[in-house]
Amino acid sequence: MRVALVNLISTPAAVLPRLGLDLSIGLSSEDPVVGRHPSEPYDVYLSVYAPDGAFAGRLELGRIAPHRRELFGVSALVRPFRFDDNHLVVVQRVPASLADRYGAIDTPVDLPAGTDYLMFRAYVQYGYTGGGDAHGGVIYEIPERFNEPVPGKLPPAVLTFTTKIVISVNVDTHVVLLNCSTNPGHRTTADYAFAIYTGVGVPVAAGRCAVPPFGLRVLDLRDVIPDGAVVKARDVHDGLSHFCLYGICEDATVAIIVLNLAPALGGLSVEHTHPTQAYLMAETSEAQQRIKRNAITAWRRVIASVAAQ
Amino acid sequence: MSSMLSVLRRAAPRPVKTALKSLMLGTSWYRGLPPLVGRGTVQDLYYWVSDGVTETNVLLNNFYSVFFPALETATKGSLTVNDPRGRRVAATTVAVGHLECIKLTLSQVLRDSVGPQGGTPQFGSLLISLTIPPAVLDELAGVEGAFYFWHRFYIEYVTARSQPAFVHCVDKALILRHGHHRPLRWYPRPRRRDWAPEMPLNIEEYRRLYVILMNRTSRASTVALVVEDSGGLSREASATIPPNGVHRFELNRSVLKGLSPRALRMRVSGLPTTWARPVLFKEFENGAISVMHC
Fold first, then answer.
1. Under a CB-based contact definition with an 8 Å cutoff, are residues A210 and A280 in contact?
2. How many CB atoms lie within 10 A of CB B76?
3. What are the residues whose beta carbons fall under 8 Å from the beta carbon of A14, sequence distance 6 or more?
4. Among residues 121-180 of chain A, which lie with CB inside 8 Å of chain B?
5. How far is CA A305 from the centre of its chain?
6. Would you say residue B31 has pLDDT above 60?
7. Rounded distance, CA B212 to CA B124, Å?
8. How close A80 comes to chain B (CA, Å)?
9. What residues 16-35 of chain A have any CB closer than 8 A to a CB of chain B?
10. How far apart are CA A298 and CA A290, in angstroms?
């Protein structure tokens, strides 16, 4: 496996001052699966991108000792950059043994076949800035090659769907779209198109969003979904209106995080979405990819049709 | 064997990779199961709670519509509710139209199935199944080899003040083969895996934290949770979980008294199945909740 060590274990995350949220990231120096890698020190880096996607710098956050967990207050760490707007960071971990053996962390090196850091993920936590004792977190990672063109393969593309769209008097849902890559030369703007449906399968909204490379965009679903649709979908028992989001992007793989914010109730929930191919268990990846690509093509037409209504 | 195949598959050239994937999906010796042949679905087990403080909603989304938006994908969905011992206490079946998402609230499902009398459990496990629509089966006729849909639903938990929190599935429990009525276990026997959650734990942040584990196999399995501080002091608890059962380890300041509360790490041993990592159900002093897998 040929990979730059800085990309071996990495997680992109959104810094979201516009939503009044503080971001913290928790990391471990242990193999979560237990047994593949003995615990060892890990060097931690934080790559910081400006709101327009320009690389702003990389912070060295130090070394996590073996058998430890560390929580890094990312919003505080990036404050010196003075970004008022939402922006992307990528937290990276490099095993000290590999750093010692190979030296440079940005130059691709040949790791032995079977070197497996699968499931090494970062804990991404949000809390309300300056108040509230509740927080919400989710754990995820990206593969060591993400949004990188592979010769002979179609460009990355994504089909999204989620049932986590909830709106009420006290609850707002924000969908965060992250366009990042393990390739520093990534220059693709992700054109994300989406439609919103009610629980009874009726479309109520559609839209598009351009996400710059190494940038992010936040969809505020209260702005997207008409008030009348929210009222009509309201459950009289809990006051919640539920919707489904279906989205496509044919230029790049967009990582998606859903935030259900209820500041008046002091709570928030954070979840990612599964890649849709994970729903399809086919004997060949060709069959899996064909169904996904056909679905993306079909949704392109459906979303255009909803947008035209 | 499975990890060896996984390593080989990752390292292999593309044609070999495809062949190994086919082998992993289709052979009995890989998982000690009959081969996955034909068409079918794979379900996971989810945690539910309905205790008067926290409610659970199952959002039964017709995901077949997502993959085949131009087909008529109306189908039938079913929900089976188990108590913490894994015993079935309720079940319901609903029609799910094309692009529909049916909300099933656990307290209502329990009332409809069990009645309003006392004695109903307050938490447990649940299984969701969506039958493959006929038009989708027709569409798959041209697909060579086995093809299964892994049901990957998100479960919604809601506080009494209507603050929602979501969590997703992580593993596999049952295989439903199209044309067969009897489900098969994905994991016939417990595997006794260990897991080291990456999340740093500061118990002072929580009123209560449940570390929730489920058993997706057909045999009882004993699991243990160790919480250790940076000085090496620890607390340990264990539980035996029946098939389809749930156990909640409750962590709070009192349970972890004597440990340095702000720099804790967890470790789980005896996970019955490969990816059955815990659900962390977080309850805060202000009544808010959040949920995650770790």
1. no
2. 12
3. A23, A86, A87, A88, A89, A176, A178, A216, A218, A257
4. 121-123, 132-139, 159, 161-164, 166, 168, 170-171
5. 28
6. no
7. 10
8. 25
9. 26-28, 30-35
10. 12
Residues 255-284 of B with CB under 8 A from A: 263-265, 267, 277, 282, 284
Instruction: State the smallest CA–CA distance between residue A106 and chain B in angstroms.
Output: 22
Task: With CA atoms as reference, report the closest residue to A165 among A255, A230, A244, A229.
Answer: A244
**Closest CB from A238, A246, A283 relative to B21:** A283
Q: In this predicted model, what pLDDT tens digit does every residue of A187-220 receive, in sequence order?
A: 999 999 999 999 999 999 999 999 999 999 999 9
State percent of chain B over pLDDT 70: 87
CA pair distance B154, A153, nearest whole angstrom: 31
| Partner-chain contact A170 B162, CB within 8 Å | yes
Beta-carbon separation of A139 and B294 below 8 A: yes
Query: ipTM of the assembly?
Result: 0.96
- What token pair was written down for B148? 């299964």
Distance in Å from the first CA to the final CA of chain A = 49
Q: What pTM was estimated for this model as a whole?
A: 0.94
**Distance separating alpha carbons of residues B115 and A7, to the nearest angstrom:** 55
Length of chain A: 309
In B52-196 the beta strands, taken as DSSP E runs, fall at 54-61, 75-82, 88-96, 101-105, 123-130, 147-150, 154-159, 164-168, 174-177, 184-185, 193-195
